[in-house]
Amino acid sequence: MTASSMEELVSLCKRRGFIFQSNDIYGGIKGLYDYGPMGVELKNNLKQAWWKSMVYERDDIEGLDASILSAPVVLQQSGHEDTFSDPLIDCKICKARFRADQLESSECPKGGSLINCKSKDLTEPRAFNLMFKTAIGPVDDGSSFAYLRPETCQQIFTNFKNITDSTSRVVPFGIAQIGKAFRNEITPRNFIFRVREFEQMELEFFVKPGSDEDWHKYWVDKRIEWWETQGISKKNLYPMEVEESELSHYSKATVDIMYEFPHGKEELEGIANRTDFDLGSHTKNQTDYNISSDVKKNEHSTTKLGVQNLEEKTSYIPYVIEPSAGVDRGLLAILNEAYTIETLNDDNTRTVLKLKPHLSPIKAAVIPLKKNNEQIVSKAKAIKNELQNLGMGRVILENSGNIGKNYRRHDEIGTPICITVDFETLDDESVTVRDRDSMSQKRVASKDLNQFYQKYFH
Q1: With 90 as the cut, is the pLDDT of residue 257 above it?
Q2: Do domains 6-84+151-335 and 362-456 have the same CATH topology?
Q3: Which of 180, 248, 301, 333 is the most buried (most CB within 10 A)?
């Protein structure tokens, strides 16, 4: 079951501490959001699941955490300074700004669709740079600046030689990175789907030319499989091959994994065959290699980025397969997929987030039945500390005293199990364990609780 509207998800996220509008007490800034106590846990769990699948569970991928600030020359060579812009038009009446290629979906700030606007008093399209600049050094005179990176992959390419030298990796292998990126979106919209500051989970997988198409298909299949393990139904995932006329300048082929978000079907993750464009753009001595891509002449690089073909005793520039997913979009899809409203036997309803246990912000809530009973509370604290020390995620002590409200709250934030310490616990050292999805309850001996807990999450 999924949410019926974006408003349902936005309401839940604010009510239960997942996501807040950034700078809310001052009216907020459009396109910027803050992750609250539940949101930061869910977000970290999603990133950890991605990192585990990419780096820990494979023997052919290394990790990287590169700087956010990018030297202008990097983005000159990559083509961003030339291509990272949108055609914009201004309304001479309301002074609002819109993307020229999205007029049909744009909303006038005075209300209604722009396409139905009666004035139609619009300027001609003009290019607008999507990258943020910041000054470097104490004097902001424009002489020394850097860009906030618009994507995380360029520093992977510029660190290619550092990583191959320090790890002795040979093609095929990959470099994975999770990090912030920034784009000066003109019309941020649909909650956290399109924002100005966001986080990416990107893999650059380097392969030998000629094997790239097989690897591209491999990663498309692998990424769909991964999203399924995060709780997204396969029937809501749609692999779509991007038409040739719509491909990015560096791409030989791209498959977008589309998802049915509350606002419509849009891209969740893209898997691109970037050929040899990237390393070819950043390498020294480009003419030493048979580069197939149309790359900009590079007179600045100090390093050759080719690798050896030991069989043919030649060197070449590797091709790159890039699975690139947005953390924020992924989190939105997972929230949407997990959102469930159930009708109970007494005709009441409950809202429950049926998150996969490994993603749940809170793994278990330990609840004293009576909040002012010292023995019960003391026992609950001891159980909470024992489970927390197992290192499987956040465990909290929920000591508000109303067991029914506690259950409903933890249903809404997706806590898989609640553990209630009651008067019976003091007699026989057993606790009540309640399952989120089935709402079934059973008694478990305190001495067996650690084993039960570990087994539950494996």
Answers
A1: yes
A2: no
A3: 333
Q: How far is the C-alpha of 435 from the C-alpha of 453, rounded, in Å?
A: 12
For the chain, give the secondary structure using H, E and C: CCCCCHHHHHHHHHHCCCEEECCHHHCCCCCCEEECHHHHHHHHHHHHHHHHHHHHCCCCEEEECCCCEECHHHHHHCCHHHHCEEEEEEECCCCCEEEHHHHHHCECCCCCEHHHCCCCCECCCEEEECCEEEECCCCCCCCCEEEECCCCCHHHHHCHHHHHHHHCCCCCEEEEEEEEEECCCCCCECCCCECCEEEEEEEEEEECCCCHHHHHHHHHHHHHHHHHHCCCCHHHEEEEECCHHHCCCCCCEEEEEEEEECCEEEEEEEEEEEECHHHHHHCCCHHHCCCCCCCCCCCCCCCCCCEEECCCCEEECCEEEEEEEEHHHHHHHHHHHHEEEEECCCCCEEEEECCCCCCCCCCEEEEECCCCCHHHHHHHHHHHHHHHCCCCCCEEECCCCCHHHHHHHHHHHCCCEEEEECHHHHHHCEEEEEECCCCCEEEEEHHHHHHHHHHHCC
Among the four given CATH numbers 2.40.30.260, 3.30.530.20, 3.30.930.10, 3.10.20.90, the one describing domain 6-84+151-335: 3.30.930.10
Amino acid, single-letter form, for residue 21:
Q
CA 370 to each of CA 377, 379, 380, 398, 435: distance values in angstroms, whole numbers, following the listed order: 8, 12, 11, 11, 21
Q: Mean of the pLDDT values across residues 433-438? A: 96
d(CA 61, CA 207) in angstroms, rounded, equals 12
Domain map (residue ranges) of the chain: 6-84+151-335, 362-456
Q: Distance between CA 458 and CA 452 in Å, rounded? A: 10
Instruction: Read off the pTM.
Output: 0.90
Strand partners, 273: 253, 321
Section 199-207 average pLDDT: 98
pLDDT (tens digit, 9 = 90+) per residue, 171-184?
A: 999 999 999 999 98
The residues, any chain, with a CB within 8 Å of residue 373's CB and separated by 6 or more, are none
CA distance 268 to 273: 17
